[in-house]
Design a protein that fits this description.
506 residues; alpha/beta; 5-stranded mixed β-sheet; 5-stranded antiparallel β-sheet
Length: 506
């Protein structure tokens, strides 16, 4: 049986008497903890006896009441003050508040060291330490099983039974649950509003959070993926903080295993996507691989996403889509993220929801059934993306409006013919000689044929730019002081970018 405040007071060797709070003498003491903080509650687990020389006790009366209230709210069992040391001479407000709440306030003789009380409590509660050890061993048995076939959701359920608490894994970035199917209970959705950002520098490891009467513990999970553990107490009591730390460690192992599995799937999916776009897969192979990724039957579409010239943040997108049960393939080409999804509103909406950044544009291809249409759908998505950027829209479908320019052809074959006819020799020369004539032409035209601005953007001397422009005019047989020649060159460059024959130069 756990030692109580009354047992400590009755021990003559401890020379401890009761100053106030006689109504709480039957409270059990789980640990005796020396602390001089004005607010030690974030680091307490409940059931502790606070030992203080008096430095922690404030002088003003109202602050003394607030100090005691904080300890009471944290379910501390009591406080013991060292005699003839640093406690204020007047602590009547503190004692009256303690009496009102049945919170024991003790006075320990000066000659009794705190370690004597700590050892007394520890020895009396040694059987609880044994029980905690057994609980910890059961937790790590779950960790052993986690490396076999137990899914993360099953691991969380088992851990919940072991520590007798309700557990939920939450992504603190978007407040969404991990490894949980169905609708979250109302108490969990309410407490999500009180979830705090985790910081290893300015907050305790385990934090108490509350929202409109709902209370829980927030425990960080040691994992590369953003995740916290929400612990809802069972009526029998609060779990031991050490047990909670071990629980979070095992949950972290399960998350890392799940993350590694999905990362492998993402890499394989990216290779499949590249093979489909580059038309390196046979129809039978493509159908088989798509079916393995849940994309075998329904009509599909390609979505091209871009944040302009900004780096594209999508590290956890595949995990979030998996959590939403959205089958997909993802690959990053330059600054454009390309996604192959089921052609339905739910899948496209989920993708947009996970990429909630104001400067991201989406281009969506026509629906297709045959995998041989992926390359063409990819070009349609790029075309729609360019149109969205041109018309300053967030999202655009290929069949919705005009392409980037109404003078550009829509068909892939006609577009390739245009590029080959106008700048084919230029692209071939760049590829053979690893030169940058096409990029030079694009920057020069984009800067409205300003020699000064173009040379600065290209980081070359003006005379070097003049030499390159002369070479371009010779190879394309078009003059850059003739309007119709300039128009043809510009449209050909835009078409080459859409076809992927040039890198993203915008």
């Amino acid at each position: 049986m756990t030692i109580t405040i009354q047992d400590l007071v009755n021990n003559p060797h401890l020379k401890t008497q009761v100053l106030a709070g006689y109504g709480g003498l039957k409270r059990e003491v789980t640990w005796a903890h020396v602390c001089e903080l004005s607010d030690p509650t974030p680091w307490l687990n409940g059931g502790e006896l606070i030992l203080t020389t008096g430095l922690a006790i404030p002088r003003p009366g109202q602050e003394q009441k607030d100090y005691i209230k904080r300890l009471i709210d944290a379910k501390v069992s009591g406080i013991s003050i060292a005699g003839r040391m640093y406690a204020p001479e007047m602590i009547n407000p503190l004692l009256s508040e303690a009496d009102r709440n049945g919170f024991p306030v003790l006075l320990t003789a000066y000659e009794v060291p705190w370690i004597t009380i700590t050892r007394t409590v520890s020895d009396a509660n040694s059987h609880k330490e044994h029980a905690r050890l057994l609980q910890t061993l059961r937790i790590y048995e779950v960790a052993r099983q986690a490396f076999h076939n137990t899914p993360p959701s099953g691991i969380v359920k088992t851990l919940s039974k072991i520590i007798n608490c309700s557990l939920y894994i939450i992504n603190p970035v978007n407040s969404k649950p991990l490894f949980f199917e169905g609708k979250l209970p109302k108490n969990v959705t309410d407490i999500l509003k009180a979830v705090r950002p985790l910081s290893t520098f300015d907050s305790p490891a385990i934090q108490r959070i509350e929202w409109r009467g709902v209370q829980a513990l927030q425990v960080p999970i040691p994992t590369s993926r953003p995740a916290i553990l929400l612990v809802f107490n069972h009526p029998t009591g609060i779990p031991d903080s050490i047990v909670l730390s071990h629980t979070a460690t095992v949950v972290g192992l399960a998350i890392e295993k799940d993350t590694a599995i999905h990362e492998r799937q993402r890499r394989v999916g990216a290779e499949i996507m590249e093979g489909l776009i580059d038309q390196r897969l046979t129809p039978d192979s493509a159908n088989f691989l798509l079916a393995n990724h849940g994309l075998g039957k329904e009509p599909r579409c390609i979505v091209a996403c871009s944040a302009g010239t900004q780096p594209f943040e999508h590290e956890w997108l595949h995990l979030q889509l998996n959590a939403c049960n959205i089958p997909h393939l993802l690959t990053l080409r330059g600054n454009v993220l390309v996604a192959l999804l089921p052609a339905n509103a739910e899948s496209i909406s989920s993708l947009k929801c996970e990429l909630q950044t104001t400067n991201i544009c989406f281009g969506i291809s026509n629906n297709f059934d045959c995998p041989s249409r992926v390359a063409e759908a990819y070009q349609e998505a790029l075309w729609a993306l360019r149109a969205a950027e041109t018309y300053n829209k967030t999202c655009m479908f290929y069949n919705e409006e005009s392409p980037v320019s109404p003078f550009l052809p829509r068909g892939r074959s006609e577009t390739k013919e245009l590029v080959e006819q106008v700048i084919g020799d230029l692209l071939a020369y760049d590829k053979t000689h690893n030169s940058q004539l096409a990029m030079t032409l694009y920057i020069y035209l984009r800067e409205n044929r300003s020699w000064k601005n173009a040379s600065e953007k290209l980081h070359i001397h003006k005379q070097t730019l003049v030499y390159r422009i002369n070479r371009i005019e010779e190879m394309t047989e078009r003059r850059l002081n003739v309007t119709n020649n300039v128009a043809e060159l510009w449209l050909a460059l835009e078409a080459a970018i859409i076809l992927g024959l040039l890198p993203e130069l915008s």
